[in-house]
Amino acid sequence: MLRRRLLTLPLAAVCALSALAVLAPAQAQPAWPTQTVRLVVPTGPGSSLDLIARLLNEKLAARWGHSVVVENKPGAGGMLGLDVAAKSTDGHTVAIGFNGPVANAPFLYKKTPYDPAKDLRPIVMTTSQANVLAVNAEKVPARTVAEFAAWAKSQAGKANYSSLGNGSSAHLTMELFLSEAGAQAAHVPFNGSPPAAMAVAQGEAHATFMVAPALLPHVQSGKVRLLAVSSRQRLDSLKDVPTLAESGFPAVEALAWNGLLGPASMPEAVVTKINADVNALLASDEVKTALARQGMTVVGGSAADFKRVIDADVARWGPVIRRLGVTLD
Question: Which of these three, 238, 268, 285, is where a domain ends?
Fold first, then answer.
């Protein structure tokens, strides 16, 4: 019937209908971005998240034809930066999030400025990293994990440790380790890994668990000693550093991950575009090499893959946080 009707139409009308049919899909998926994109980093300059953001922003800008501005907004264990993305309405704001403000915060605080599960939309996981147990080389005599555990117990609660923020993977990994070791130490949170690493190098903090990049300059200067990694296998970039499982603490396994998230209202088409473009950059030799130099493992994958990682961390660390009794209100 439709074919017979089309055959009775003037040629100009048929052409017009055909043009509309071709244009319809393009109109259903408008071009994005249409303005500057804001990439919020919830930690300070020089942190591992900041390094990832600044590695990607110019490359994404070249693909998108619009500037990508990196905005550092540290504070509240990363929640200040993630809150910006959760509450954004311009359709052009994303944040690079990590374990603490995305998976752990609801278990640590009675009230958070956003609900990660309802207000944030996972877009793409960028990298994952093992945490590294590091100590001040002068103030802490330990050269193995067992020696550090014994030393910490001998301090009768006078030892302390730094982290890149309340509720971060660094914070919770140390708390889990101390619980397994039967030791105590005071927590000294910082806004990001560079100042937390500097605190250990200068002896302000005795130890830390964090990702390697910010620690490596202090290791090379001899001020910081690495004792173990929190991953299941040794890191290719730190082959001489044993795992915690090898060192007698198999229950202490943790990965620090990060990835891009937007507001829950972000359209599916935009999520798909950002995901595809970031995955393309992560697959390039240039980006993979740059991240590997910083001890980071490229992950990528779909938005659904990233959500599964978040959900798995919620399921794993929620009970651990409750058992340890860690609260931050």
Answer: 238
